[in-house]
Structures are given as C-alpha cells and as structure tokens.
Amino acid sequence: MGFFSAARQGRKDDVELGKGLWRRAHDRFTRGLDRYHQILEGLEDEALYAELLEIGNDLSALSGRVRQVCVAAQRYAPSEGLDIPGPLAGVHRALSMAGNSLATTAEAAAMLRLAIGPVPAGAESVRRRAASVLEQVNDAERRLEEAAAAG
C-alpha cells in the first residue's frame, strides 16, 4: 500500500471506526492477522506451511466481519476514547478476547515453526486456538445484534 492510499484508508477508518475503542479493537485484530502471516514466511516444511496457511486464510476471512462489528458498534455507540459503552460492553469483551486468541494462535504457530524434528500433532494446537477466535467473533456479532434489538 502506497503512502497516499494508506492515508486515504486512515481517513476512511477514522470516519467508519472513530479513533477510540472500536478502532483499537479493529486495529488489534488486523495486527494479529499480520503477525500470524509473518510467522508463515520462510517456513520450510511444505505440509505444515499448507496447513497453517489454510488456518490463516480462515482467520483472514474473519477480518471483514470484525470490521463490520466495529463499524456498527461505532455507529451505535460512538467512541473517541477508551470508555466502554455499557450496552456494548459484551461486544467489546468478545472483540478483545478474539484479539487475544488471535495473538495466542500466532504464538502457537511460531512455536510449531521453531519445533525441531517432526511435529506429532501437526497444527492441531493452532487450529484449536483459531476455532476460539471464530467463536469470539460470532459472540461479538450476536451481542451486537442483541444490543441493537434491545435499544
């Protein structure tokens, strides 16, 4: 991404996500995805690479959903700071947990990359952690729908 397109995207993000809580949740998820994919660079075991890449693609597919939740949350309860709006506390908690789980997923992938010799369980530990990211994104969406229906 060039300088001008990055600046344009930053302005779009400011409008859609604000500069507070929801922007931070979105950006943290995006950084976690970037980190996960950085770990795959230079991985020499082709079978492990293919397995981890598939997991990474599944995680990347969640990025648009996380953005939609954050954009909708910003419209519902605009945030320019770090105060968590009461009706959307559960949404924020689920997004925070998804970001944390994504970080531990990247960490598990890094541990596999550093393993010496054959890895008996393959990428199962990474897959389990990635499944929890999906559950937490689903939870954030559900909680946002519930808050919108209630209020």
UniProtKB/TrEMBL annotation:
Annotated keywords: Coiled coil
Coiled coil segments of this chain: 123-150
Protein name per Swiss-Prot or TrEMBL: Uncharacterized protein
Organism for this UniProt entry: Arthrobacter ginsengisoli
Lineage of origin: Bacteria, Bacillati, Actinomycetota, Actinomycetes, Micrococcales
